[in-house]
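Hi L.,

You mentioned the student needs an example of a multi-chain input paired with its predicted structure. This one should do, with 578 residues in total across all chains.
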Amino acid sequence: MSVRVLRPGLLTSVQDLGRYGLQHLGIVPCGAMDPVAHRIANALVGNAATAATLECTVLGPELVFGRDSLIALYGATFEARVDRKPFPRNRPVFIKAGTVLATGAASRGARAYLAIAGGFRVPEVLGSLSTYIPAGFGGLAGRALKAGDVVPGASDLRELSAARLAQIARRGLHEVSGVRTVRWAAPELTVPYGDGFTVRAMEGRHFAQFDSASKDAFFGETWKVSPDSNRMGYRLKGPPLARARAVEILSEPTCLGTVQVPNDGTPIALMADHQTTGGYPKIAEIAGVDIPGLAQLAPGGQVRFVRCTLAEAEAARRTMQAQVRSVEQSLGWEHGR
Amino acid sequence: MAPALPRVVPLGDAAVLVDFSDALDLAVNARIQQLAEAIRRRRVAWIRDVVPALGSLALHFDPERVEPQLQPLDAAAALVKDCLSRRLPNLDDLARTVEVPVCYDTEFAPDLAEVAERCKLKVEEAIRRHCASPHRVLMVGFAPGHPYIGGLDARLSVPRRTTPRPTVVAGSVAIANTQSVVYPFTISGGWNIIGRSPLRIFDAARQPPALMGPGDRVKFTSIGREQYDRIAKAEKGEGAE
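Structure written out for the whole complex:
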């Protein structure tokens, strides 16, 4: 037994970097909503970026670890306790077999990733370990975790955790709340501070079809993430948007970050579990660099859109990629890689 | 006449849309399927998904594999142009013919009588025409393995239902306008249900997971209730998870 679920939290699922190459069969990529946080969580415990983590959403799970484990919780700030004492976040933590990690509500951000040395080992489905809940496949039995579940880890979890602990111990360890950890923490990269978050977006393919009030509103108003937002898409509450001419649109491919506007005028930003095709007009395309930050907004969170060009979006993405790689590399050093 | 070159436009910063047509045209769609296959055969490392749709085609990039000096939009446009300037793969060579048995009995076909009446056809004639139509999958989307199938007999053209049903049972075969669909999951839907197939339309544990892929020919065949039950039972045993 590796990790047993005592309390599942609001929505905790096994995710990796996604399922690609099958969108022509209507199979969505899924994967971590905040892939940057997922990657850094993995790097903290010495894993490759492709290892599976547990994505915890808004209200986190309570878990008991069956073996000595090197773990890390990175991303949104969750109230987290290890055997009732504060759990050190954003760093590798060595916990003994039988330890209980209880996470509560997120106080900043919406999603944190729990990584374990060697990764969570669920069966690979169509090239990925990610859970796709709407169609019920991938991850652990194709669904969110529930109480009583056992999530398997590596068969050599204990040895792997001990070896990796020995590596990072070279620069010193200390004991906090009865667990062994390091004196440093990974920088926070994705969780926005404050109330509002500004998202860079390019005009979508059908932007010109919208009336001028709607065009101004999209890039001018503050939008609120609606409670019926999920891993498929974020519904954004604000003034209803309308097209000047409602021409019929042939169903066409969509992508992560497409903002489409159904007939009710409420824009939907497509997230990790989005449908691969859609027939609604596309008012905007969110720059990839801002997807992780958007994924960290909980319902009620506020977002503004600012225009950017394709070249700006590409440059910003490259800068972010370089930053993530450099953090991964520096953490890799700690693990002797 | 040489077909017009499609427009290659950005779809965010990690994909492009190759836009052929705003209107549904089966010949154009066939060309989209051919281009999709031609691009797949190039095995471009930074293109991770090639998604043909009704009148367009998306190429999704892997941002981790796009070389820093590469302009993906320009490179994708050049790739499309180059593929279209050469002989495209023959659709008939690469497409499979998928036989889909359908039970058109009333209990599985709540809208068949109404469809037949609107089309001024006898129910048997409507079934015969649905089975005889030269169907081809134009796109898979909306849900995993959910095919949009073109080629429906023009006499069977009816609009979508004004009120969608909250649940349509998996395997249901439905029509609207010029297309047919087969629901892979029990989901909501507004198309006119004319029958049900006992086959598993999508099974993540199967290879390939989708019964019908884009470009495939589809042959619907009419089966009776007993045959439906027999096939449904066999499919259940096979696809157990």
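You could point out the following to them. Chain A touches chain B through 44 residues (CB under 8 Å). The CA atoms of residues 67 and 335 of chain A lie 20 Å apart.

Best wishes,
N.
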